[in-house]
Amino acid sequence: MGQTEPSEDLKISLESHLLDTLRPLEAIIPSDLAKTLSSYTCSSPPPTIPYSVLQSVSQWARTTGLDALHSQSPPLDPHAYSMISLLAGTTTSPERKFGAYVPPKGLDEMEAAKAAERKSITALLNALLSIFGCAFAVWWAADRLGWKNEWRVLLALFVAIVIAVTEAILYLLWQSRRSSSTSKRVKSRRKVDPSRHKKDEGPADINPGEKSESITTSVDETTDAGLRRRQ
């Protein structure tokens, strides 16, 4: 039987109804296929069966096995061995662990992320301007005081390092607070608001009696019009 290469790696959960469908075939299918199938339909079957085995059974039932299926007492339905029927109620690759589904971000979350990115860039630019500005101011002040060039450079570097460390600490604190507030905002948005659903249902009837009276009047008018046409 021709088998595609990708299907050999797939495993199908061997459910109880699938076992009841496959076991009657062990006595009528070809010996090589029966031997392979019996290793999965034994008394203590494994939890899965290869997709290729089910595909071979389906191909046999739709081609050379039609007469064998009809000759059984009672006859076996060939449609019960199509791939759609065999895979119904089963799970593909139950032994594999797939990652959790991450829904795409909404428009509000994307806009919030862009705004946070702009704020981060602005904070970094402000930090760089503060570092270079303070270093230049100290260098200029030392020049006015008549310091030597090497002392002026060392003092400017020291001030720049102090300002850089301070700005880095402030930026990390701001970043941690912003991330915590963003996560709380996202969680609150994902919660279901029962009052919102009530609003979406539309305004409630102010006077239900008026609505029932209008419906009754329209029905009576329609009935009278139908009677006039018949006369």
Summarize the structure.
With about 230 residues, the protein is mostly helical. The protein has helices at about 15-20, 30-40, 50-60, 65-70, 85, 105-145, 150-190, 195-200, 210-230, and strands at about 10-15, 50.
Describe it.
With 231 residues, the chain is mostly helical. Among the domains are: 6-87, no CATH class; 107-184, no CATH class. 64% of the residues lie in helices and 3% in strands. It has nine helices and two strands, in the order βααβααααααα. A two-stranded antiparallel ribbon has the order 1-2. Helix 6 runs antiparallel to helix 7. It starts with 10 loop residues before the first strand and ends with a helix.
Shape: rod-shaped
H-E string: EHHEHHHHHHH
Helix content: 55-70%
Strand line-up in the sheet with most strands: 1-2
Based on CA atoms alone, the radius of gyration comes out at 39 Å
What portion of residues belong to β-strands?
under 5%
- Low-confidence segments, given as residue ranges, are 1-7, 192-225, 227-231
How would you classify the helix and strand content by structural class?
mainly alpha
